[in-house]
Amino acid sequence: MVVFACEDADALGGVQLVTHTVAQGLALRGHQVHVVGLRRARAPVRHIERPLYERHLAAGGPGGGRQAARRRFARLLGDVGPGFAVLTSPAVVSWVADLLPPRLRSIGQYHGSFEHARATRHFAQVRRAYPALDQAVFLSGDDAWRFAEEAPLPNATHLPNPLRAWPDATSYLDVPRVLGVGRLVPVRRFDRLITAFARAARNRAAWELHLVGQGPELPRLRAHAAALGVAGRVVFRGAVPAAEVGREYLNAAVLGMTGEHEGFPLAVAEAASYGMPAVAFAVSGGVRSLVADGSTGVLVPPGDVEAFTAALSALMADPARRRRLGAAARRHVAAFRVEKVVDAWEELFARLAR
Fold this sequence. Notes:
Strand content: 15-25%
CATH class of the largest domain: Alpha Beta
Oligomer: single chain
Pfam families: Glyco_transf_4, Glycos_transf_1
CATH topology of the largest domain: Rossmann fold
Largest sheet: 7 strands, parallel
Number of strands: 13
CATH architecture of the largest domain: 3-Layer(aba) Sandwich
Shape: elongated
Number of domains: 2
GO molecular function, one term: glycosyltransferase activity
Helix content: 40-55%
Distance between the termini: 16 Å
Protein name: Glycosyltransferase family 4 protein
Keywords: Glycosyltransferase, Transferase
Order of helices and strands: EHEEHEHEHHEHEEHEHEHEHEHEHHH
CATH superfamily of the largest domain: Glycogen Phosphorylase B
Structural class: alpha/beta
Domain Glycosyltransferase subfamily 4-like N-terminal: 13-161
């Protein structure tokens, strides 16, 4: 029995996507799995078309109260047998960890990076609440080690996020297109990617930058591209259905990742699975676990737009190097195929059950 608890399990977001992907993978292995949303998502989405696990909503109505959700969650736990409860964020741990019965081993996840936690209240939340859990799970070995040392946490380990699927086809990397993928929100800093592209593409008229995603930053980013003289070469694709995202990777040559903080960016892993190298800011252990600098892509110091521009320009000018790095990137991220990540979850369960 495995119970995943999320703040809003059916919202559009990376935590939710990962939760449903792992839940489906475990259900396919014969585990009885429940995914519980503690509150109602404002704009629910369906992450898995035909889920083999049970889905529950603890909130009673729109914006349902915390205490009511706690009572419904406690009632749900009364009906499940021995197993594991996966609490997917510090907020969830503080919300419902005290409700878990002894027959459920407690696992607390943190989907951000150590660097992001240190800069926010998350570090204090993890340090206060996670030592009492049976296991604290982070996204990379580097993150787990730093939490173990500095929190300190005696129960830290790491499990990566899984790729949703493994493509048969790979990009030829010959379409002159830089790709950015993610919600158009301030923390993603797509303005930096537009700036770097405008500089790198100054003498490369065929190249375009395509941004896949939607969000409140769209007007500002359009204005930024216009101010840099590349309005006609920066294409805002909007939201692309999950089933069609593969075409975006197949028809691009380089992925750019310029966010202020990233946990384990699935866009980098997905691009690599299509044989596409990334240029990324080295903002976290998760990014560093996905991109081996100079071998599977290029890492640059966080926030250094000049270094990012130089790295992007070099890859745009060198198709042979793009293919070499892209092929190595695909081999590297095979470790994050969903079946391998589910293997790691089952190994964790086995250790906790001993």
